[in-house]
Design goal:
The protein is of the alpha/beta class and about 725 residues long. It folds into 4 domains: about 1-15 and about 485-625, Isoleucyl-tRNA Synthetase, Domain 1; about 35-145 and about 375-470, HUPs (Rossmann fold, 3-Layer(aba) Sandwich), CATH 3.40.50.620; about 180-255, no CATH class; about 635-735, no CATH class. Helices cover about 40% and strands about 20% of the residues. The protein contains 21 helices and 27 strands. A hairpin with a 6-residue loop joins strand 26 and strand 27. Helix 12 (about 445-450) crosses helix 13 (about 455-460), helix 15 (about 510-535) packs antiparallel against helix 16 (about 535-565) and helix 19 (about 625-645) packs across helix 20. The longest helix is centred in the last third of the chain and has 29 residues, at about 535-565. The protein binds zinc ion (ZN) (2 copies). One zinc ion binds near residues 171, 172, 254, 256 and 257. One zinc ion binds near residues 708 and 717.
Length: about 725
């Protein structure tokens, strides 16, 4: 008898081995190339270049994966992508690693080996971009444009030289910029003289600089700090007592060496970072709270010392005499033609007072100027200025975001980005920063090998990355079960679409519940796009998951099994349901794809025999009237009540469910309810005082085919099953 039930053999569990992962990734790169060479509108993401030294860490993984999710989401909205990964190549750590005063080629080949190693890590992250193309700040075309930008800034009188007190680290053997300094509050004791004026009034005097602080003291604690008063005759103070006072002092430390900086007064090259205007309204900040942080970092920035007395870096090709910088078209031409020319250039005797600058630029200028040296560089067709998006970790408010914005405002009078997204750091289970010395750091590749790339990405994609993301085995395992649940829902749908033939199915004639699902699907897409616009990918996922779990699985799938398994294959009611499932499957695979790109790629090919990346999220018009909404709402309410009392109704007594109902809805409702409450086929819908009564009339026999309870069986099966399996023509429309 079971032969007449339509049970498809479930598609196999979706698990990917490493070979499959690699082959999907290879195909992605071909596909994105095709997309990017199409006539779609473009979306530019500029990659803040990581430093080309050392192993990659979880912070890198968070950054690259969120960028990749953004790229995938934009592709499904119909964009092509302008994105070129980059590396920051100059600077002291590399000079220290290779050794001082080596040749540029020696530094270069070290940097290249570092990039190669980091690349092999990045290429494990399942990103869609082609890692073969990237920019480096040591590229000659990039460095040349940086120098061109320097000349422009000199012309705009934004660069000057000055003897000025500056922070110096003796371990770095170099001056330090604001980015390289960590400020720390320390408590320290200072000796002061205390002079009694009256019972409550004392004066504290610091003899070193002759200031006295008028203070009220009680029980040795300061009640109120008064005005600073200059004491003239400090020697004449009598009646004074030496005391120690605790004060808070701010000290500066080199953030590389954690050593206190020295103050030196030397001539250096500065960039005047003063900006007249606040960031324009057209920059959007995500999360919103970062706007103030950004504005503060830009407007509280002191002069920027851009010169370093080191070897490995971009030269500052200027001659200066005290405060005067020599401007020469000839020098500019020679140097921007070939940076190596700078070493050969010497001035004639006429300019003997001018000194050649042998310094190199601060690395933050290298990366900060990439909006000019990379985005506006004709060699990189992959990108363009301004970028739609800069997306980096929260430390970049003082770093790359700041340096980029200021230099772009000075050079272009425009922000280099339209959207600024800030993400948190990777922290351990307890929220502590990961570090080698603490022994709590986890390598991303270690997690990928353990959980698989899909699960690893999923964990990051569904975390609120505006905050720090905490990593631990426990937390990752807790999330993986969500993927399993999603996979099972998709497997069910794909399996039950195996025999689907799309002939003559007009959804406007389908059941209310089918159209309701499609209506909810449109609602879902709209909400997801809205959250994505705010870069709140974790919120989008919450909304998607709720739909999958509550609407699709608990409401729909649980009510359609009778239609899918029991009815005749070609039954319209069954085909309506399959058509609805097919539409839902397609849209859902697309919107969930940035979170589980491998699984959705495989399922999409299985179900639709084409590649998912070329798809777009499209609006579909679904007519669903207010009246229909009311009916479906009531249906869901009745179903909920029904399910809760069914459990306690083992003897199959009369069921009474009371709902407030309008008379005109009753007939439509009874049609819909049949599919929800199919275990109670002989329901009497009885409207009395606008209330609904479901009567389970004397039914206690279980049909061997459909497992429904009925009052009469023919051999082992019910009348309905008898008719379905008979081959006779069936006239009833909905139920069959
Ligand atoms: Zn240092
Ligand atoms: Zn039956």
């Amino acid at each position: 008898m079971n032969k007449t039930i339509i049970l498809q053999k479930p598609i196999s569990d979706i698990r990917l081995n490493k070979e499959q992962v690699r082959s999907i990734e290879k195909r992605w790169i071909k596909e994105i190339k095709k997309i990017n060479s199409s006539s779609r509108k473009k979306y530019t993401i500029h990659d803040g270049p990581p430093y080309a030294n050392g192993k990659i860490h979880l912070g890198h993984a968070i950054n690259k994966i969120i960028k990749d999710i953004t790229i995938r989401k934009k592709i499904f909205l119909g964009y092509k992508i302008r994105y070129l990964p980059g590396w920051d190549c100059h600077g002291l750590p590399i000079e220290i690693a290779v050794g001082s005063n080596k040749s540029n080629n020696e530094y270069k080949s070290y940097v290249q080996s570092q990039i190669k190693e980091q690349l092999s890590g990045f290429s494990e992250l399942g990103c869609i971009n082609d890692w073969k193309n990237y920019y480096m700040t040591m590229d000659s075309s990039v460095a040349k444009r940086e120098v061109k930008a320097l000349f422009k800034l000199i012309k705009k009188k934004k660069i000057f030289t000055k003897k000025k007190k500056i922070d110096f680290c003796s371990k770095c053997n170099s001056t330090l910029s604001e980015f390289e300094i960590e400020k720390e509050k320390i408590n320290t004791l200072i000796k002061m003289d205390m002079l009694k004026l009256s019972d409550k009034k004392y004066i504290l005097i610091n003899k070193k600089n002759n200031w006295g602080i008028v203070t009220l003291l009680k029980n040795n604690s300061i009640l109120k700090v008064g005005k600073l008063v200059k004491i003239r005759n400090i020697k004449n103070l009598t009646n004074s007592k030496r005391i120690k006072i605790r004060i808070t002092k701010i000290i500066k430390k080199c953030n590389r060496h954690n050593t206190r900086t020295k103050i030196l007064k030397v001539r250096q090259i500065y960039l005047n970072t003063y900006l007249e205007k606040l960031p324009k309204k057209n920059i959007k900040f995500f999360p919103k709270s970062t706007k103030l942080k950004f504005i503060n970092s830009v407007f509280n920035r002191p002069l920027w010392c851009i010169s370093r007395q080191r070897t490995w870096g971009t030269p500052i090709p200027i001659f200066y005499n005290k405060n005067k910088i020599l401007e020469s078209k000839k020098i500019k031409e020679l140097v921007t033609e070939n940076l190596h020319n700078w070493k050969k250039i010497n001035l004639s005797k006429k300019y003997s007072k001018f000194k050649k600058c042998n310094d190199i630029t601060d690395v933050w200028l290298d990366s900060g100027l990439t909006h000019y040296s990379v985005l506006k560089n004709k060699n990189f067709k992959e990108v363009s200025f301004p970028a739609d998006l800069y997306l980096e970790g929260k430390d970049q408010h003082r770093g790359w975001f700041n340096a980029s914005y200021i230099t772009s405002m000075l050079l272009n009078k425009a922000s280099p980005f339209k959207n600024l997204v800030t993400h948190g750091f990777a922290v351990d289970h307890y929220g502590s920063k990961m570090s080698k010395s603490k022994g709590n750091s986890i390598h991303p590749i270690e997690l990928i090998n353990k959980y698989g790339i899909e699960n690893f990405r999923f964990y990051i994609a569904t975390s609120n990355y505006f905050n720090d993301i905490s990593f631990s085995n426990e937390k990752i395992k807790n999330k993986i079960f969500l993927i399993k649940k999603i996979k099972n829902i998709f497997r069910f749908i794909v399996t039950n679409l195996k025999d689907f033939k799309e002939v003559n199915i007009k959804l406007k004639n389908s059941l209310l519940i089918d159209r309701y699902l499609l209506f909810k699907l449109e609602e879902l897409k709209k909400k997801v796009i809205e959250e994505d616009r705010k870069f709140r990918y974790y919120k989008s996922f919450e909304i998607i998951y709720k739909f999958l779990n509550v609407v699709l699985s608990n409401l729909y799938i649980s009510s359609i099994k009778d239609r899918l398994y029991i009815l005749r294959k070609e039954s319209k009611t069954r085909r309506f349901c399959q058509k609805t499932l097919k539409i839902i499957l397609k849209d859902l695979l697309i919107i969930v794809s940035p979170y589980i790109p491998y699984t959705s790629d495989m399922l999409f090919r299985l179900a639709f025999n084409k590649s998912i990346l070329f798809e777009r999220i499209k609006k579909r018009k679904v007519n669903f009237t207010k009246e229909e909404k009311k009916i479906i709402k009531k249906t869901i309410e009745i179903r909920k009540k029904f399910n809760s009392i069914k459990e306690n109704n083992k003897e199959r007594k009369l069921l009474k469910i009371y709902v407030n109902l309008r008379k005109k809805h009753i007939s439509k409702l009874s049609q819909e309810l049949i599919y929800f409450l199919h275990n109670y086929k002989n329901i009497i819908i009885h409207s009395k005082k606008l209330k609904l009564k479901l009567k389970d009339a004397n039914i206690h026999l279980k049909c061997n085919r459909c497992w429904n309870f009925v009052s009469f069986l023919n051999k082992d099966i019910c009348e309905r099953c008898l008719l379905i399996t008979s081959g006779k023509k069936i006239s009833e429309r909905v139920f069959f």
